[in-house]
Design brief:
- This protein is of the alpha+beta class.
- The protein has helices at about 15-30, 60-70, 70-75, and strands spanning about 1-10, 35-40, 50-55, 80-85.
- The chain has 3 helices and 4 strands; from the N terminus they run βαββααβ.
- It has a 4-stranded antiparallel sheet, with helices on one face.
- The longest helix is centred in the N-terminal third of the chain and has 15 residues, at about 15-30.
């Protein structure tokens, strides 16, 4: 199954974003789940205001576990984190 994590940044933790960025990227590349796509969400000024991860997982619990281990989640760089099952209907995976 494909799962999508949509996370929005915590403005009170903006200074910590850079501090944990390398660990966050390492986590996304760790192979714990197969990340299909990931990247920042940009606001109108082009500044990162969150991130999206699309991953192949066996269950949403796998995605929740993977997300909970992310340094951005552990250090509250993200204010909100939502995880959804995704069923593409148009595109290469449809």
């Amino acid at each position: 199954m494909l799962a999508v994590r949509v996370a929005l940044s915590n403005p009170d933790k903006a200074d910590e974003r850079e501090l944990h960025l390398d660990d966050h990227k390492r986590h996304l590349r760790s192979g714990s789940v197969r990340v299909v796509q990931s990247g920042p969400i940009l606001d109108g000024a082009g500044k990162g205001s969150g991130g999206v991860v699309v991953a192949e997982v066996a269950s949403l619990d796998d995605m929740r576990r993977f997300s909970s281990e992310d340094p951005f989640v552990r250090h509250e760089v993200y204010l909100t984190v939502n995880i959804y099952e995704w069923r593409p209907t148009i595109g290469n995976n449809a």
